[in-house]
Amino acid sequence: MAYLELDGVAKQFGAQTVVDDFSLAVGKGEFISFLGPSGCGKTTTLQMIAGFLDPTRGAIRLEDKDLTAIHPAKRGLGIVFQSYALFPHMTAAENVAFGLEMRNVPRNELAERVRAALAMVGLAGYEERHPRRMSGGQQQRVALARALVIKPSVLLLDEPLSNLDAKLREEMQIELRQIQRTIGTTTILVTHDQNEAMSLSDRIVVMSQGKIEQIGTPQETYEKPVSAFVSQFLGKTNDFAGTIDRTAIPARLVAGSWSAPAPAGLSGPVTVSIRPERIGFGDEGLGAKIVTRIFQGNHWLFQCDSECGPAIVIRQNDGERQPAEGDAVRLTWRPEDMSVRARTVT
Amino acid sequence: MSGLAEERNARAPWALTAPALMLFVGVLLVPLAMTVMLSFHDWGQYKGIEPVFILKNWQEIATDSYYAEMFWRTFRIAILTTLLTALLGAPEAYILNRMSGRWKSFFLLVILGPLLISVVARTLGWALLFGGNNGLVNKLLMSAGVIRFPIPFMFTETGMVVALAHVMMPFMVLSVWAALQRLDPQIENAAMSLGAGPVTIIRRIIMPQIMPGVLSGAIIVFSLSASAFATPAIIGGRRLKVAATLAYDEFLNTLNWPLGAAVATLLLVALVLIVVGSNALIERRYAEVFR
């Protein structure tokens, strides 16, 4: 049964629809990411759950109670903001204690919970520091401790890692996942970073222009993208124009010189979407010429000029001899590795 | 790098600031030093100013209770004006900061209004509003039932404080506004999500963070009010003298320049001590917020 449920939620600012028909059921303890480019409505959706914005239409329910009827201060959600929004005039411990004070937690219990929360995020000993004397990563941890110490029913993270440098961001991702697993808080993360969404979440909600494009596990969204937007937003991909020929017996899917038995259902012009690491060089297949070859340590990146336009291929650096720049090659892949969508001919 | 070039580099800032420094010395430091020297000169009804070194003027200020009363009044008015601008200006700035674009610029103009009008015209305007028992302000207050008898505004400290607070308000509002702009835009949402109500948010989150702004605004308002001339001269008139109007009278009516210079010097020294002292206190107290 759904723990947190969004049902046909929409938000309009004047005539502009920022979020439209957003429906999602989140299970208890699940880690969900809202992924999309800036302006896709992911933060707006998060703010509607938090209560800083009221939905124009639709319902938000938490354990079957109407969340929109509850004042934001009474919702009991933990929120980590992109800017952290720590209280600069309070020490780390005072920041963390604030939410407990608002709940009139007795003094002894409060001190103990603050200490435990700061220890959980690895900041034991930093109780008396002021936020401005802490590094970005430390501030981020204080913000996380402050949100978690109130034992929130749902943890909302609004691009919490985007202000950190790459190395620290990776460390925090691992830590965030571990903390979330340990305490089992239902979590919603808003991010524009597909790696972050994929490495952290149980399920990803890919959004574009206020609408949900796809909901699925990281693997599903990566390997079986339902739209061109999803396949391009989540990592690199090749989109080849192909045709399904139902007159041939048996029916075949053709893209340039590459062909395979046609999948069921579709007919006519289609887009064949295939990840660069699933393409191999073979004796037959799509004709291409290698334009550039880039060595990237554990793998090679080839940019090719194929019969169906530009293509990228990634090959493991497994010691095999790789084709050189200017070589004519044949690109081939297994039919189960591609996804095929209907294509509108323009 | 060669030693010569370094030496030239070390001299360059001085050379570049020399014109401004000379102007500063010429029009500020020299007249100031001359005023201080003047305060030690002698003066008589018939002999005029005598360039000798005596402490007569300073002794007179120190012993005559008239001066003590006058300085006490000056600072009392300045303190009350500062309190009034802080009490009204800080909420005003907070509301202004929350307004949407077009209204914000309109009301900012309204707040800056007093600074755009000539000080004499504006103070005379207040004199018209206050004007005796039949002044507009008294009539309004009485018909609204706030007071039963007219409050004397003209030639009183109350009137001076009200008129001064009006013109000083922009300094307070702008100072608090600058502090508000430094606030994280999500900070109120953060406090709200942790369960804080609107009063708690203002008292525990907003107030402590804008306090440095209020205090630096208070320093500006206090020093400007203590040395204000036009408003006390018109509203206070001949009877209620403050340091600035007294110095003016000594210079231009009694023609006792040395005594006027002593009053002006004392006002300056007292103000500098108060401003520097309170500034140091504020910076130490709010080191975390200022950083």
Question: Could you walk me through the main structural features you see in this protein, from its secondary elements to its overall organization?
Answer:
The complex is a heterodimer of chains A (346) and B (291). Chain A is an alpha+beta fold and 346 residues long. Chain A folds into 2 domains: 4-231, P-loop containing nucleotide triphosphate hydrolases (Rossmann fold, 3-Layer(aba) Sandwich), CATH 3.40.50.300; 236-342, no CATH class. Chain A has 8 helices and 20 strands. Chain A has helices spanning 42-50, 92-102, 107-120, 136-148, 166-183, 194-200, 218-223, 228-233, and strands at residues 4-13, 16-26, 31-35, 57-62, 65-66, 78-80, 154-158, 186-191, 203-208, 211-216, 238-245, 252-255, 258-261, 268-274, 280-282, 286-295, 299-306, 309-316, 328-332, 339-342. In chain A, the strands form 4 sheets. A 6-stranded mixed beta sheet of chain A has the order 6-7-8-3-9-10, sandwiched between helices. Chain A has a 5-stranded antiparallel beta sheet with strand order 13-12-11-14-20. In chain A, α2 packs parallel to α4. The longest helix of chain A has 18 residues, at 166-183. The two termini of chain A are 44 Å apart. The mean pLDDT of chain A is 91. With 291 residues, chain B is mainly alpha-helical. Chain B has a single domain (66-290), classed as MetI-like fold. Helix content of chain B is 77%, strand content 2%. Chain B is built from 13 helices and 2 strands. Chain B has a two-stranded antiparallel sheet. In chain B, β1 and β2 form a beta hairpin. In chain B, α3 (65-98) packs across α9 and α5 (119-130) runs parallel beside α10. The longest helix of chain B is centred in the first third of the chain and has 36 residues, at 3-38. Chains A and B meet through α2 of A and α8 and α9 of B.
